[in-house]
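Task: fold both queries, return tokens.
Query 1:
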Amino acid sequence: MNQPIKNRDILQLLLVACTVASISCSSPSKEEKNSHNISDNSPNEAFDIAEAVKVCEMQLEKTIQKVTDLSKHPRLIETDQQEWKQVPNGRLVWTSGFYPGILWYMYDLSGKEKWKNEAIKRTEVFESFKTITAHHDIGFMMFPAYGNGYELGGKKEYKDILLTSAASLASRYNPEVGTIKSWSNEMHPRWKQHITIIDNMLNLELLFWAAKHGGDARFYEIAVNHAETTMKNHFREDYTSWHVLEYDSLTGEVLHRHTKQGYGDDSRWARGLAWGIYGYSMVYRETGDKQFLDFAIKITDKYLSLLPDDMVPYWDFDAPNLPQQERDASAAAIVASGLIELSTLVDDQNVQQKYMEAAVAMLQSLSSEKYSGNGKSDSFLLHSTGAKPLGHEIDVALIYADYYYIEALDRLSKLTTSR
């Protein structure tokens, strides 16, 4: 979610904003084990934030005419299709909150009451989800919707709903392990004990928010413990991550390191790295603990070293025959949003500029003819990969790709207008 960006020094903010205003956004070449240096490339046209937002609004205008059943939400658009496939707002459906979250961001970017009204209508239909304790996805389901409604829409009455949601999420914390249990064993029987996935890093934001807004102080401790344990166990020596860890529920010992959505158990799944970059940047913002900033930087630099020329990753960096493999625009959107925030948190001005340039280059690529849904479908973005090993959501439009894309635009817009 888009929290107020905290800069220690206003001069740093000015530097970042000026970089955005004048940046040339050609994509750098990729060298394994070497970070991109975007400034080395020949300049192209600067990224037009206003035009990108205009396209998003145009796409949403089409969507609201077609997506009218309040008991469902848009989830994906299949390859070569134009309209959103809608799925029920079920208690086990982790993507329920992204569409209302998108509407809140469009309200924030446009100031139009129309989008606020749409967002309210779409948010309030699943208030009862605040008591979900069966999985960790309550964070993804509630915070983009109710959190953005509180912060961007001024809906202070959402506070108690968010606090209840945080308590539900915290109920899955195992102090013997030091993490929140992500999935139930009934739904994921391959694993018999305590399951934690890298995606869970983003749900910690709900706990941090709740701790700051009158919730149990224990929420903060749980979030920090989860981040520290994940940092210790979920990442390899090269700062790439596993997807799924199974812990002994009683001792906290790591039993297995696996994947469900990556190419293989030991492969470098792109969206897993994206969750890490975004997650640890957010945790540093909330804690000010330098270990999390240092870790976010290390994950980021590794990720940047693996990217292809257009800054949009293959769905897994270790999948065979990479030039023929599908991309994952959702990972690029998540990283772009995370890097915009991370660029405001680092002290070194050269690093600030590197990360901001990388983020804007990602957004320019996502907004290009190759990846934009404009004129082809009702989505903002095309070419995301949700779960190729499971045989679904392969080279499609995904609602969470659109969510993190518009969040990145909102964050970037705030930086440029604060100059």
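Query 1 returned. Query 2:
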Amino acid sequence: MLARHGFRAIALDLRGHGDSAWADDGAYDIVDFAGDLVAIAGSLDRKPALIGASLGGLAGIMAEGEVAPGSFASLTLVDITPQMEAGGVTRVVGFMAAHAREGFASPDEAARVISEYLPHRPSRKASSGLAHYLRLKPDGRYYWHWDPAFIDGIMRRNAERGDGSDYGRGELGEAAARLALPVHLIRGGSSDLVSPEAVAHFRALVPHAAYSDIADATHMVVGDQNDAFGDAILDFLMRTHGTEIAA
């Protein structure tokens, strides 16, 4: 969609995710992800407009607000703020951890697990492309495309810091308050991770931020309401940059 409107779009898998390499040393803290984003931005011929969903958004806040201010032309956060709802954090982490190490007997089994996690969506068939998000290993089982050590790290840090919902009172909240570039916050209208109170908290930290609320979308905004999400993204980018940018 972005390419059709003249943008150069680059889709990134964070370390330990998708087709990107896993960190041998288990370095999956937010500053590690932020450093990767800064390095990639620095390799481009112009500052990119960063669009980060969930963890990618948190990494973007830390990258621009702490690690290397001025790395990006703008920052769009997709259903993520420094302040998060404890129940939503627990639900997301629980889903990711549940089958991280034992995997699935088949893509159909993974599809059933997703349907249980997202009961508001029609049941997903494995033939619809789910296998793309799984790795088939020599033991004949299918595993998510993320490093189990990444999940272990989240659970360990949550045990140390609480449930992970209090970032707004710590380093990420401080980084957000330093954001000087154009910022766009998108919230899923039915999100259990980002509440209206969290939005108000963020907008107090970043008063110049634009805001879009996507009706009938959960934390999984893109999958729930892709057209409305795309319209919100495109409107912000066109108003902020025209097409002279990479996203």
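Both queries returned. Flag for query 2: The chain has a mean pLDDT of 90.
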